[in-house]
């Protein structure tokens, strides 16, 4: 248990007020970490230290870093969880420049921007862990459903790997977690919207969506808490020799070897 203990660690979880982000924040707090969460709004009244910020706005990222530095002196753990599918389905012809730009800004640039702001303190203290929350879509794009989102996550995977190599000798580990279908409110809305547009039930919509990815061998979606437990392990002393890897947590759905 000592190897999973996070007492004395300062952790920032972006998008930490709901879904996977909330589950991660709660899990790290249970392990003893001092948890800071950020999101544009805080409707859930989180028990963790909350700082409002829109990470697609460079000025707000700078202000976030200043507040963290003033209150906590930096962070030991950074979970880049902010992201999401915001673009319409239908393939390349439905996606405008604005669609592509907003998806890249949300799922890639926001993480790069925050990393660049907080990494110097990690290098100075010669320790730190960064986890980028990606998606199995980064390795398996569905052209008719999530093209821009999948491309942005594939770019995040590549960036994360390169950053890990750069920082490996400076005491900072960088890892990527790629969830598959996870039972969150946005996922439920996505399934319901898809089913409504197709004129089928939500259950039928879920079956159709999962069929496009080959299904889930374990027969169910992940719970947010299961993703959080993986993240907890990766940021803990138990994972001290791990960096640069992508960890899919998808119930076996990704039909590739690596």
UniProtKB/TrEMBL annotation:
Look up the domain of life of the source: Bacteria
Q: What Pfam family is a match for this entry?
A: adh_short_C2
Question: Which UniProt key words apply to this protein?
Answer: Oxidoreductase
> Which PROSITE patterns did the record assign?
ADH_SHORT
Family assignment from sequence similarity: Belongs to the short-chain dehydrogenases/reductases (SDR) family.
**UniProt-listed PANTHER family:** 3-OXOACYL-[ACYL-CARRIER-PROTEIN] REDUCTASE (PTHR42760:SF133), SHORT-CHAIN DEHYDROGENASES/REDUCTASES FAMILY MEMBER (PTHR42760)
- NCBIfam families for this protein: PRK06523.1 (NF005095)
Can you name this protein? SDR family oxidoreductase
């Amino acid at each position: 248990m000592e190897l999973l203990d996070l007492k004395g660690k300062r952790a920032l979880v972006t998008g930490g007020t709901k879904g996977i982000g909330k589950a991660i924040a709660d899990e790290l707090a249970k392990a003893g970490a001092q948890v800071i969460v950020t999101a544009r709004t805080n409707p859930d009244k989180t028990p963790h230290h909350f700082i409002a910020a829109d990470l697609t706005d460079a000025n707000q990222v700078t202000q976030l870093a200043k507040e963290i530095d003033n209150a906590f002196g930096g962070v030991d753990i950074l979970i880049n969880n902010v992201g999401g599918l915001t673009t319409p389905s239908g393939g390349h012809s439905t996606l405008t420049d604005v669609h592509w730009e907003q998806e890249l800004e949300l799922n890639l640039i926001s993480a790069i921007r925050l990393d660049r702001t907080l990494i110097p303190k990690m290098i100075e203290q010669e320790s730190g862990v960064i986890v980028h929350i990606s998606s199995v879509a980064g390795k398996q794009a569905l052209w008719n459903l999530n093209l821009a989102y999948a491309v942005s996550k594939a770019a995040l995977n590549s960036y994360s790997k390169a950053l890990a190599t750069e920082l490996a000798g400076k005491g900072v580990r960088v890892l990527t977690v790629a969830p598959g279908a996870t039972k969150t409110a946005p996922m439920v809305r996505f399934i319901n919207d898809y089913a409504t547009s197709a004129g089928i039930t939500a259950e039928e919509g879920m079956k159709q969506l999962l069929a496009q990815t080959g299904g889930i061998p374990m027969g169910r979606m992940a719970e947010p808490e299961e993703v959080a437990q993986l993240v907890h392990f990766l940021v803990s002393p138990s994972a001290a020799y791990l960096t640069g890897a992508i960890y899919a947590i998808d119930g076996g759905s990704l039909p590739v070897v690596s």
